[in-house]
# Entry
Amino acid sequence: MGDYDEDTAFLGQTGPYFWTTFFLLNTVFVSTGFNGLYIVFVGASPKHHCFIPDINLTEEWRNAIIPLTIVDGEEVQSQCSRYKLDVVRNLSAEGYVPGRDVNLTNLEQEKCLDGWNYSKEIYQSNIVTEVRTEVLSKTMRVLFTSLGAFLFYCIGYMTLPWIAYGIREWRTLLAVLSATSVVYIPLWWFITESPRWLITQGRTKEAEAIVREAARKNKVEAPPVIFKESETTCRSRTYTMLDILRSKNIRCITLMCLLLWMAINVGYFGLSLNTSNLSGDPFMNCFLSATTEVPAYVVSTWLLKKCPRRALLSSFLIIGGGVLLFIQLIPDTLQYVALTLEMTGKFGFTMAFSIVYIYTAEIYPTVLRNVGMGMCSSAARIGSITAPYVIYLGTYNKVLPYILMGSLTIASSVVNFFLPETFNKDLPETVEQMQECQGLCSGAKKKKYVENGRSVNPPIQREVKSDVQSLTL
# Structure
């Protein structure tokens, strides 16, 4: 396969075609910010106590039937029990007054046998109350994967709490958020297929037609022959997940990437979903959590131009994990300090979240990039599915989620150092090129390559100026 970036260099790095495609691709991520984190509001647990049926009770007993308990040094109504209904009904009928004639601490308690009564102070209703890239140029590609997609996602994330603030009924809220996805249907006709991918499938004529149309929109002249003969005569085979398993080196790299993505998603979504459990207004907490991500995405994009991937990713994993381990030492009286540290942890995880996307894409060759990214994305979903259960551990001990997320993150930062470095390296296009990108995880034997029926030396991976270094914010 020839060098696609060199063959299409006449298009430039920007221009109307690339900018149009860039913004059309990014609009999809606005709704991702909605649909990825709507559960913060739809699944939040409002203040509640045991439901009291409409029976004959005096006003004093109706107000006193819910026991009081101490939570974080404050006296509040119990959410899980009530004084036994039959006993309270008899005492009320006999004219006893709670607290004066009857010592409430001696009364027998029972579970919420008739359900719960939920406060509508914040939420009118929710499910708890009722259910108990490759088409872009090198510069634009990096801008899309490291800044564009995440910033547009963040726009949706920051908009979500205000939509939830205005719509307190969960069914209407979900209907409005889901309806936003309809506007993306026309994108099928406006976003072209990736010419790079078409070439790997042997569909060179289609790829050339797309590149010529891009040249017309960018007002540049395309050469008579765009792609070299080696590209037009060679049809690459189709790759699947089995190809990931055949090579020891790729298996090792993929396993470490899966662990990385899973750990980052547990921490990221764990902190994101925990905003409704923080002290203060849940809508403002969610907005602040989303706002924290904006500088993280901008800073990560700038740092990707300057820094090696492994050191950069591990540094922010250590920051995020270290803050989570340290936060448990903050006393309950310093809630704002704990909130600041939690947002700092969110900043670290957001940085790692942004970096790992482009890092993983740089590791895998073009022929395996979709397969590898798909597997990593699946591992990330396992992490995000696990995150709510990690947060739920806080009902037993509020420091458990932080210890678990912090320890997992620190461990993943160590694993990251065994991945191959991609800074200042060409974007690999074939499996052979990827296997030359050796990390500390394995040592590959020198391979022979066959070209035109004879053995030749393996291709040399030349170092070039990184894609990210050509990025101008």
Observations:
- The mean pLDDT is 76.
